[in-house]
Amino acid sequence: MLQLRDSNGPAAVIRRADYSAPAFWIDSVHLTFDLDPAKTRVLNKMTLRRNPDVSVQPLRLDGEALNLARVLVNGQGASFKLDGGKLVLENLPLEGAFELEIFTTCEPLKNTSLSGLYVSNDSFFTQCEAEGFRRITYFLDRPDVMANYTVTLRADQQKYPVLLSNGNLMDSGALEGTGNEGRHFATWVDPHKKPCYLFALVAGQLVCREQRITSRAGKEHLLQVYVRPGDMDKTEHAMHSLMASVVWDEARFGLALDLERFMIVATSDFNMGAMENKGLNIFNTKYVLANQATATDADFSNIESVVGHEYFHNWTGNRITCRDWFQLSLKEGLTVFRDQEFSMDLCADASARAVKRIEDVRVLRTAQFPEDAGPMAHPVRPDSYIEINNFYTVTIYEKGAEVVRMMQTLVGRAGFAKGITLYFARHDGSAVTCDDFAQAIADANPDSALSKLLPQFKRWYSQAGTPRLQAKGSYDAAAQTYTLNLSQSCAATPGQEAKEPFVIPVSLGLVGSSGADLPLQLQDGSTSERGSHLLVMTQADESITFVNVAEEPVPSILRGFSAPVLLDFDYSDAQLLTLLAFDPDPFNRWEAGQRLALRSAIQLIASDTLLTGATLLNDAYIEAMRSVLRHLALDAAFKELVLTLPSETYIAEQLEVVDPQRIHAVREAMRAQLASALAADWQWAFEAHAPNGAYRPDTVSSGRRALTGLALTQLCLAARDSGDSVWPGKAYQRFKDADNMTDRFNALTALVNSGHALATPALAQFHTLFKNEELVLDKWFALQAGSCDRGGQVLPAVRQLLKHPDFNLRNPNRARSVIFSYCSANPGAFHRADAAGYVFWSERVLELDRINPQVAARLARALDRWKKLAEPYRSSARQAIERVADKLELSNDVREVVSRALAD
Ligand code: PHE
Ligand code: ZN
């Protein structure tokens, strides 16, 4: 078992099996804040009572980084002790409610962890999920304790004109009396009970965009987006996204806004993307601020999803919350699923929906599959953790969303909506488990496969690891039958040696030589359909036979990526080319192209082929790519996805032993060949998709920009080999003339990544143009730290960037833009034979850990997959991790990550 220690001795492992209900309930909380950056005073008056279901025991309140001044019980001084950070009170009344008054102070200005109450740009913000509320006051800091909140904020009127908290504004005005000159107050009452992780306050100089809306039921609501003065011109898209979210949740799930006032506030110092505090969402500026001059199409679409995501939490997360943090995916998996569906439903057509699905699957496969195969692998509902902050993972979020998606697949879209309705009928206002959720969806659909298979289906919650599905097909021409044999397995993960079979919904089609789906008829005659058949696999080995199959088909398996599994099928190149040309399922059409590219990449990596000047990709592949690029009916966004090679990270995952330099070299060589072999086609694509009309971030025009961006990159790459200067010149021109950030940044990227001399002046001009736009400067830093390595120039450049006057390690976005872009997103530059990349990594992990353990622990995960590395990378990566692990002064966050990485 994993041994962890820190300066206070071994860190505690928290186990799901140890859950017990709280010994006390907190009914109401009155908080009064005297806000001062150096020392904020917090008066916390709570009404508590014993939980009659739990044996009589002392009250143990969580607290962290607090100075305790006074404790009163029912207005009287009370005896207490501090035990390992907890405030312990014995001899509390046995019967009925009692009042507990606690007076503490904290130091927001010194709070660089950005958990609890902190200062950013002279304003106050809070972040309480998962366990930040205990840094504000002593409390039962667990999600199953839900209370009514009344909050009074008191602060200097000039410095902090805006005072916000959850719920409705009840009272506000000037403070009176001596010592209160120039101070004001505001009192907020939240009409809904909530766990303390959903508490929030904001105070500062902010301006807001407002919108009044009327719900279907005729109720009026006020929507507000608060930003720093000067950022108002970047709030329109967030407000539109919020309005669209309100409409969508009511239309699709019958879930209406339950608040008179719904606020979003942006801050530039934030550990994550955003936070769903009840009625007062706090967002990273990156997911709020956008206009065409400063934000890319990707930013616009991320804002739409994140605004949706946080808004949808208002029901899935806030109205029904988690019983304990092991149930985190109850709210996160479900809410990611909902935001994915929201974005898809906003798409104009089926092709745009497919593009969104492909993008989501790409994230799952490049980030979650590696996590599931590495030292941090954990089930969607984990069994234990040391630091809960380390479990805000792609497994909880993205795999959790896939699990919910499979439920919808098994019960149908309407059945799933019925399930959600039942879930709220049963559990509204309470704190529940993943079991409760799955049970509600199944019970609302008693005849469904989900209902029949529920205990087995729930293995998706309990077993970690990505299942591997192996499929073999055989066609019997005489009998006109086609049989598909399927077998599933799942590799061991830490603490889980053997796995039981999963329920795997496999969406299948048979593509004929004409390119159309063949009619599907099962052997027992039960089904006859054209299109896709849903096979619900439950056994380790299964087979399915289709009859009356007139010709040998190409199977299209796992359409729409119907389950989060790895699929092996021994396709011939010709079969993949058929699917790439014709598969009616756009996901598998894209996938066929990826498989072809992956196959070439893997062969080349294993061979000792010299890469320069060689012909690496066969003509059939090149021709297929040309036909996709020139296709008359496919849209640009889809073409861009097909013509983008699988990422280095994804390629690495397919290999037993990883030589990052070889992968990088092979992928670059393939890219270069695609660039020159298709030069005329790229040129056509660039010209045929020229800007048409005013900028709009919709899927059609953003698809055009994505394809022209890729074309320009490829044309600059081809120019690098041919020495031609026309395309770099055109890229430079586009960089200067573009009327939007997407085109401008794509042009800059094309210059930087082809290593052209014009990149230098362009980067300098870009900095001058946007020196006052922090989110744009993040892009400027990230582009350089993530740029293509040619002879080891990136690391020295990154070290230089750390010394740039605009660099600031305390700001997570800026730290990520340089350090993560290098360590986590630029494998070709990071994995150096001289180990200098790893040395850089260990220095930054330690440096960041003293400032912000959550951010440090995320960076620590950059070397998760070190055991797969070839020598000399493997040994030097291990040494770097050991250097971090050897430090006595480490946060629990980083300690847990490096200990797991080193465990065998
Ligand atoms: N609950 C937030 C979300 O997914 C994420 C978050 C977690 C933010 C912890 C801050 C801290 O929407
Ligand atoms: Zn969330």
Describe this structure in words.
By secondary structure, the protein is α+β, with helices and mostly antiparallel strands. 40% of the residues lie in helices and 21% in strands. It is built from 29 helices and 34 strands. Strand 26 (467-476) and strand 27 form a beta hairpin. Helix 5 crosses helix 6, helix 18 (699-722) runs antiparallel to helix 19 (726-737) and helix 22 runs parallel beside helix 24. The protein starts with 13 loop residues before the first strand and ends with a helix. The model has no long low-confidence stretch (mean pLDDT 97). The chain binds phenylalanine (PHE) and zinc ion.
- Classification by helices and strands: alpha+beta
CA gyration radius, whole angstroms: 28 Å
Mean of pLDDT: 97
Bound molecules: phenylalanine, zinc ion
Chain oligomer state: single chain
**Biggest pleated-sheet summary:** 9 strands, mixed
Note poorly predicted spans. Answer: none
The percent of residues in helical segments reads: 25-40%
Total E-strand runs: 34
Continuous helix count: 29
Sheet-strand content, in percent, reads: 15-25%
Report the principal-axis shape. globular
What is the end-to-end distance?
A: 10 Å
